Amino acid sequence: MIYALLLIPAIAAVLSLIIRKDLLRRLILILASVSHTVITVIAWNVETKSLMGGWIDLDKPGLLFLTITSILFSACSFYAFWYLAVESGKRKQDFEEGLFFTNEPEAIFCSCLMAFLATMTLVTVSQHLGLMWVALEATTLASAPLIYFHRHHRSLEATWKYLLICSVGIALALLGNFFMVIAASVPEVSDKSMILSSMIEQAKLLNVPWLKAAFLLFLVGYGTKMGLAPLHTWLPDAHSEAPSVVSALLSGALLNCAFLGILRSFQVCSAAGLGQFCRELLVLFGLLSMAWAAIFILGQSDYKRMLAYSSVEHIGILALGIGIGAGATFGAMLHAVNHSLTKAMLFMTAGNILAVYKTKNTKSVSGIMTVLPVTGILWIAGFLAITGMPPFGIFLSEFTIVKSMFEQGKAGIAILFLAVLALIFIGMANVFINMAHGKKSDSVNVSDRRESVISVFPPIALGFLTLITGLYIPPVLNNLLHDVAVIMGGNL
Amino acid sequence: MIFLKILNTVLALITAPLLLGIINRTKAFFAGRNGQPLLQPYYDIWKLLNKGSVYSIATSRIFRIGPVVGFSVVLIAAAIVPFGGLPVLLDFQGDLILFAYLFGLSRFFTVLMAMDTASSFEGMGASREVTFSALTEPALLIGLAAIAKYTGYVSLAQIFSSINFDAWLNAAPAFILIGFAFLIVFLSENSRIPVDDPNTHLELTMIHEVMILDHSGPDLAIILYSAAMKMWLLGAILTGIVIPVHSDNVFLNVSAALLFMLLLAVLTGIIESSMARLRLLHVPQLLIGAATLSVLALILILR
Amino acid sequence: MSIFILGLTVILAGGLVSIFLGRRPALASFLAVAGAAVGSIISIFPCFKILLSGIAESMRLEWNVPFGSFFIKIDAISALFLIPIFGLSAIAAVYGMGYLSSYSSRKNLGVHWFFYNLLLIAMALVVVARNGVLFLVSWEIMSLSSFFLVTFEYEQEKTQKAGLIYLIAMHIGTAFLIAFFVLLGNHNGSMDFDKISVLPSSLASILFLLAIVGFGTKAGFMPFHVWLPYAHPAAPSHVSAVMSGVMIKTGIYGLVRTLTLLGTPPEWWCWTLIIIGAVSGVLGVLFALAQHDLKRLLAYHSVENIGIITIGLGVGLLGISKGSPVLVVLGFTGGLFHVINHAVFKGLLFLCAGSILHSCGTGHIDRLGGIIKRMPWTACTFLIGAIAISGLPPLNGFVSEFMIYLGVFKSDTGSGMNELIPSLIVIGSLSLIGGLALACFTKAFGVIFLGLPRSSEAQHAHEAGTCMRFSMVILAACCVILGIFSPLVIRFAENVIPEITSLNTEQIQIELSSASGILNHFVAASLILMGIIGIITVLHKLLFGRRIVREAVTWDCGYARPEPRMQYTATSFAQPLVDLFRFFLRTNKDISRSEDIFPAQSRLNTDTSDICEKYIYQPGFKFLSELLAKLRWLQHGRIQLYILYIALTLLILLIWKLMKA
Amino acid sequence: MNNTLDTIMIFLVLTNLALLGLSRLGTCIRIVAVQGVVLGLVPLLMNNWHFEIRLAAFSAVLIVLKGIVFPRLLTKAMRDIKTLREIEPFIGYSSSIALGTALLIICMWLSSHLPLPVETISELTVPVAFFTIMSGLLLIISRKKAITQVLGYLVMENGIYTFGVTLVEHQPVLVELGILLDVFVAVFVMGITMFHINREFDHIDTDQLSNLKV
Predict the structure, then answer these.
(1) Could you tell me which of C420, C393, C433 has the C-alpha nearest to residue C521?
(2) CA within 13 Å, CB half, A483
(3) Which residue ranges make up each domain of chain A?
(4) What ipTM was reported for this prediction?
(5) Which of D139, D140, D141 would best serve as a mutation to test chain C binding (most C beta carbons within 10 A)?
């Protein structure tokens, strides 16, 4: 089963390179993603066997993140179908600077997209810290060409920054892996493999200073990839320049995968009794990320960048949730689900807006409700969802986290948390409402009013999912989240 | 008993315009004129009642219903306010609040009548009326609260029957303050100098008189009569506080009160003869001053 | 309870059906309104039953969200708030059907009605919810659905701004509520309200303050009211009516419910409430006085009335903390009765404002005039509403204020400063509010309806349609009925007050009976008053039967050519008071006067922006955004800097954490 | 053996400081190449020069990549853009060396707080590896040219490699896989991107790559 999960996208990636027909390639994209999701759903009900001597296995946290990734990918594959049709490889004029550019060949794009899925799947199923690192590095490689889809210099700049910053980060994570090995090289440790379960079992025996240092390196390394401030700097650039469908995947899936990397090392450290040590750091970085995001969301003039900063904020909330522990861990896991769904929905909607308005400047976009009614509603709904308004899911997850903060007497953090959220709300409300409402911008052609079903259906579906998790958490999901929370040292 | 209750109201109905006559005579005396007859207000009202009427084309039904409401209100108020220790027709806890707000109702309609004529002068008068009354209201109510707190009762009849000379001896400063506050309220609410000059010839400077510029005939008669009644009723409140005569002899009580009422009218006349109307800008200061006096009284009583 | 749920289901069904009928606006409107009206009528019955019997009904279902349970309970307090919610919403919905018919070609009415019905359900749920999570979710759905209703005409810049301010205000308020419920829930060990444990006084006080800000934002307490003057004018009138009439009352409900959860109040809570009430009341009416836009004016009056309600609650609370049954009964009864009254007359006034807007196309007071002749129904109902809201006898507005006054007049808590200050604040502010409200509504009614039309819009005004008239007449009738039957109506408090206080029921009964006895007298007086008015009107008619009655132009003091524009305007009418209170109002005057010998055109423009907005929020937000802007160099595009962040983070973490080790 | 490794470590320190202080790109490329070759020999050294195919292959690949392919690639890039020097770095050369020295001290201090749990061949490996990583980062931070930044990345990678090869004995596969992947990234992906940058901007001054901000 895990093989199927890994191989389907991998084969699809290869096929995409071979096939010449655009339409067929897009269909393969959809087919592979959907079948991936179907298998993931099956994996919920069937016990999976571990492979490669325990290097690969699907445990509960892995399953959770795999599901998020897979669902997003399915939604995005439909969206990409529309997107590629619109953006087919003609020469295009850049709407910001008027220069001409061409898009990347579609074959490479599709292939990288599938490779991206394959590598992320590998991240979620690897039980070996080293393998996980390899998989994460591979996600960087697979996604770099995706960001450089529009071949103009801004996206090149974004790609360059993405590559360099993430490579530096990921190299530090490799160092973290080495440190972990060194920590395990004490003679008492019998099984010196880097497989998670055995590491956790013998965690108490590990060398503490090296383990601490390893965690720091993992935190900085994977944190760069995950987008914790102040290591997140590639994120707004990449998200704003990448095609919207890629931004959705980066934000919704990739960040979570990197987070899983931190969580794995956190698992080992807390088994070693360093839980408090790690939690403090996570809280620190969580708050810092939120504050940093707030600074840049207020007065943001590019709506895709704003969404990217919002990702930084939510990544911060995830870290904060894990850092607070207890009930907040559950909240953080729920938050990961909700944030991914909502953010992907928002990026797709942003893509629709960009396709019609041809600008990313918030000031030049207004009257979406008039021009694109469905997109307009999605835009506002997405805004309400991402800022944690009920009845959307993020409200519940943030609420759980706040509650847990107060429960543990961390009122100061809770107040800070609420204040920053309010600040971000104000910043985002300013942008979103002014874009959705008002008279339609002069720059919009009436003939541009197109809302094909396939471009609005994926975001609607995702929005609907997050609405459901806001009103009712299905028991299956609840149980899984609960199990994951327990594994991550929390309890509700 | 019921006879006395009715007497209380009837007395107000009969004697009210007389106050105007007395004031006018006083003013004439100080101006060295002979002046109009004492009963001139009665003649005026009677004359107007028998006249025809002219209505502005701008006006609506509000203009016609206004005087009626105003008069009905003073009738009810006359059934609430005791005069000279007489029992009243309507007596319940909190009637003093109703009393204050009833005048609000009548003012509401007076102002609307003025606005109904589409005349800018009447609008001006209306504007001043609401401004000044908004300031007298606290003075009146806080003053009433002060005496209510002192006596421990919340109906006018009970309050006035329990104020006696002992009360004056115990809390003279407070009572004096309230007396002055109510005197200002009395002058202001009845549009007398120094707040308003009923005899001026410039529409620009009047308040109450300008609001009824367009009324004529019986409507004007009703308004004049209501205004006289209002003066009587506010005077009665003042009387109740200043002359707390509660002997067994009803006749004595009423006479004492009537005497004070006479004096009050004369006093008003003297004030009008000896003072100039305040500049409109300074009127609010006077009224806020009255409110302050009431507040001080309340503080003295509750301290 | 099942009937209640049935009613809500009908309302929801109406809303859901209408959203799918966007192409057929008339049918969509009709079905949604029918759903709202029928559902409200169904649901209102159990509320009456519970209010009269005092026997609460509850229901608890599992709800699969963290800490959530679907625990709802209708007790007397809930029932008291539910009745106006259902009543006014149903009436306003009928009105809205007529009001919106002219929009049917431009807008998707189905969506509008969906949110309307959703708002109705959410309000009902807020009032019955007994679980923190359920409450918050309903609360936010209420805010959101009303946000969508406010932004009905989203293409207008004014509406856009209104929506934004509203949303932000609601969100900040909710943040406080989240803290409130979380703290409460953590202490009680459950988010359900029925698991109450005694709170330590410091925690109770923190909770009280959180509730004041959180609920006060919704209710419109003075520093937190800034959204009201924007949202109400922007919303369609029936929505303004519902929002102002009942939705902001959920804030009051929240506060009352809080009081039942927090135990015995220390005295300073009462002070806080009374002072907030007085400030909101007086400043609210002052700002109303300075407005030129009718709906904005009405919005500020909501602030004023919320102030009066709060004063009432504060007086009641003072009674609890001092153990004085008179204060408790009269304060709470007055305050809560004012909740109902305000729903009725403010709903009515907003509906009338809607008719004016609908027929003249403008809500600018100074452009109207004389429309009483063309819109007699609207004028008559507006007049009733105006008298009621000014707190004048014999209508309902007077009764509730009267009870609060009476409470303070009768209070027997001894002398000294503790007695003095509340009396002084309550009586002083209420009487000032009374006088100013009178000024404000004579201005509004006089300038809008009386005199001569000031513009061609006003000249061509026409009366509202049947649906709209029907709703206005019903509400106007309610104003009279609530006034006349007040001795009976205040009996509602019999079952409500015991829910709030632990005072024994007998004492409450005694006090209520005495109050209703007093009101009997008042009613007698009002009936006599109305009788006399009737008789004299008849006499008046008879008198004029044989008189010569002529019509002529208004006495113009010698002016040669009077014209409607020379009439006193609302601005000039309010000018003396506005000047008097310029310290608070800070009206901006923009005069351009020609200095020539033969003066040509000159103009005067006055604008009273909100003092809190201008001096608190705007500078605050400006400071904040400048501060944040100063930090934006942190990310200015150079990759070297970004790598530096990584390196520094790593180094600092290593040094810091290893040093400890 | 101990001495050999120590010598290599000291060589590393010196080359790092040299990189920080030199402006000529060609020299820098060569120094990094030499670093790569010397480090490529370390695995064999660690194994006491016992011949083992896997180890030898690993070393060979590294030496070829770092010693031959990479310098060629960079030199070509340098020629293409006709820049021979790093002009106006953010941090000057002498300050860079001073900073480097400070970093060296900090790294010494850090490693003193990280006692190795097992016996090691050379006490110098931990601080020097740390220092190499840090100087790589410093190079990236202080220089403007994309080439220098890639060099910096390589130096950093060398540091990590030093760690892996000298200390992580239990997980050779992990080390080899990781290092190869890293180098792959450096050579191919960055190389390709640089090629694109070159085409798009006609230069590889990363100064120009700062359009995306705030």
Answers:
(1) C393
(2) 11
(3) 137-487
(4) 0.91
(5) D141
